[in-house]
Write a structure and sequence with these properties.
Layout (H helix, E strand, L loop, with lengths): L15 E6 L6 H12 L2 E4 H11 L2 H12 L5 H12 L7 E5 L5 H13 L6 E6 L2 H9 L1 E3 L6 E3 L26 H23 L4 E5 L4 H17 L1
Parallel strand pairs: 1-3, 1-4, 2-3, 4-7
Antiparallel strand pairs: 5-6
Helix pairs in contact: 1-8, 2-3, 4-5, 6-7
The chain binds BIS(adenosine)-5'-pentaphosphate (AP5) and magnesium ion.
Magnesium ion binds next to helix 1.
Length: 233
């Protein structure tokens, strides 16, 4: 396989590429925000990019809308082009935390090839694991900041001022695809391709699994410890 690899040499050209993988509600966005603050890397989330495109009324957003509303994956040709453009932007010059991409083996191969072309590869793939039964309840209580994408939870992770984002004060909202029927569709349709992506990176020996049922700071600690340990191995 091209582009994937492990160990301290994995962050070529001083650029770290870290992947967060997990089903709907596993905590990818939550952990990406914490890791971004800790590691100083940009957080690139494919779902956030699609939602921003929808709010902007762009053609890309319109093309993605129907798939997202049904809980389907947006087709690879749309997704890969959008994501690679963001990965090539100056904001990602030090590296990036990838949240929600790649989600199919075709996307993973495209990412691997793009990175290999730049003499780079993925440093580590973190799989956040949570039993399916817990996910529907988690997502039902989620509220997100439409401006910066930070997720909150009505009971567990409430903002300091009810209804407002701690980071930028924007009123929080509920995502359209967080209705329980769409969440169930997302789980039914998106877990199998996610497992194939994990298998793809398992073959390169770069996947690390963390228990996503632990409290949020404990999950963050487990991820950061693994990144340090992997670099030392
Ligand atoms: P996307 O936005 O990526 O949605 P998702 O993968 O379904 O994941 P979520 O954002 O719903 O969950 P999360 O893991 O980020 O959890 P969070 O941290 O918010 O994608 C949306 C749609 O876009 C897709 O359905 C698809 O249509 C399309 N799309 C996106 N990427 C694509 C791609 N690459 N290819 C094709 N289509 C694509 O946490 C959830 C809640 O739990 C929060 O309330 C949080 O506070 C709480 N929580 C988090 N961690 C914990 C914890 N440890 N304990 C208790 N509560 C916790
Ligand atoms: Mg998310």
């Amino acid at each position: 396989m091209t582009g994937a690899g492990r160990g301290p040499t994995a962050s070529q050209n001083g650029r770290r590429i870290l992947l967060l993988v997990g089903p709907v509600g596993a905590g990818k966005g939550t952990q990406a925000v914490a890791m971004s603050a800790e590691l100083g890397l940009v957080h690139l989330a494919s779902g956030n990019l699609f939602r921003q495109a929808l709010r902007d009324g762009s053609e890309l957003g319109e093309r993605a809308r129907a798939y997202m509303e049904r809980g389907d994956l947006v087709p690879d040709d749309i997704t890969i082009g959008m994501f690679m453009e963001k990965l090539a932007a100056p904001a990602a010059s030090k590296g990036a935390i990838l949240d929600g991409f790649p989600r199919t083996v075709t996307q993973a191969q495209a990412l691997d090839a793009t990175l290999a072309g730049r003499g780079q590869r993925i440093e580590r793939v973190i799989s956040i694991e949570v039993p399916i039964e817990e996910l529907v309840a988690r997502v039902a209580g989620r509220r997100v900041c439409p401006a910066c994408g930070t997720p909150y939870h009505l009971s567990g992770e409430a903002p300091s001022i009810p209804g407002l984002c701690d980071r930028d004060g924007t009123p929080l909202m509920q995502r359209d695809d967080d209705r329980s029927d769409v969440v169930r569709a997302r789980l039914a349709k998106q877990v199998a391709p996610m497992l194939e992506v994990l298998e793809h990176y398992d073959r390169a020996g770069i996947v690390h699994r963390v228990d996503g049922t632990l409290p949020i700071p404990a999950v963050t600690r487990a991820i950061l410890d693994e990144l340090t340990d992997a670099a030392d191995r």
